[in-house]
Design a protein that fits this description.
Elements lengths: L7 E4 L10 E7 L5 E2 L2 E2 L4 E5 L7 E2 L2 E7 L12 E4 L3 H16 L5 H24 L4 H19 L7 H8 L3 H10 L4 H18 L8 H7 L5 H12 L3 H5 L4
Antiparallel strand pairs: 1-7, 2-5, 2-7, 3-4, 3-6, 5-8
Helix pairs in contact: 1-2, 2-3, 2-6, 3-5, 4-5, 6-8, 7-8
């Protein structure tokens, strides 16, 4: 489900490569996993980068995750995630639940749930990295908090990277560095969250009577034209075309 390099939940098969521009979270499902022939401890999930040479085996559910949603650590290599307890277990349970209910979820609902899984996954990995006294772990934690703040305040038309920094009590440079490691910028992240919000509302029957102009303003865009230009560039269709079912 979704657009382009989007979320997908399937049973893992070694001969089924991830779509271009995505990584995958492999959650054990009825047994343990093995990495390069070595059995992993029970309750261990694997977060795979877009391209990985590792040899994997074991029954698992594979959640395809767009690169823009991957924790920075997952861009450098395979990450082991403890899903036996705490936040990691919550993530694993959510992956299993969304896999079981995928056919009953609409596209907007599916993407919304997976967005939350991605956010919690970044928090889990950031917490793991923060246990090590290294700058990358700190930046990963900053990125997670910034993403959560932007998602909660995306409709504020005055939201900028500087505003985010002021509200969180960090320097703008610190936020820029954290997001740079994830391949984005404060401005791009804010635009992405606003576009997702509009996309979800366009798919929601309850908002069918809301005009594109009103949706644009409600999501923080200056005009319907600004929204349409950014929306087409991101999703390949205009807001009106998506509403008509062409996206």
């Amino acid at each position: 489900m979704g657009d382009g390099a989007a979320y997908r939940v399937v049973r893992y098969r070694p001969d089924d490569p991830a779509p271009r521009g995505t990584g995958r979270l492999l959650v054990p499902h009825g047994g343990g996993l093995a990495l390069d022939g070595a059995d992993l401890p029970p309750g261990t999930a694997l977060l795979l980068p877009p391209v990985h040479p590792a040899r994997l085996a074991g029954p698992a559910l594979a959640l395809t995750v767009p690169v823009r949603e991957l924790p920075p650590a997952a861009l450098d290599g395979v990450v082991l995630v403890d899903v036996s307890a705490g936040l990691g277990r919550v993530v694993a349970d959510m992956v299993r639940a969304v896999a079981a209910e995928a056919d009953a979820l609409g596209a907007a609902e599916f993407d919304a749930v997976c967005d939350r899984i991605g956010e919690l996954l970044r928090m889990a990995v950031a917490g793991r990295a923060a246990d090590r006294p290294s700058a990358p772990g700190n930046l990963a934690e900053v990125e997670t908090v910034v993403r959560r703040y932007v998602r909660a305040h995306a409709t504020d038309p005055g939201l900028t990277g500087r505003v985010v920094a002021q509200q969180l009590g960090w320097s703008l440079r610190q936020i820029q560095l954290a997001l740079q490691r994830a391949g984005t910028t404060p401005r791009a992240l804010i635009r992405e969250e606003r576009l997702r919000l509009v996309r979800d509302r366009l798919r929601d029957p309850a908002d069918r009577a809301v005009s594109i102009t009103d949706l644009a303003h409600a999501a923080g865009f200056s005009s319907a034209g600004a929204l349409s230009t950014a929306f087409r560039r991101r999703f390949g269709v205009s807001p009106r075309e998506l509403r008509r079912g062409r996206g």
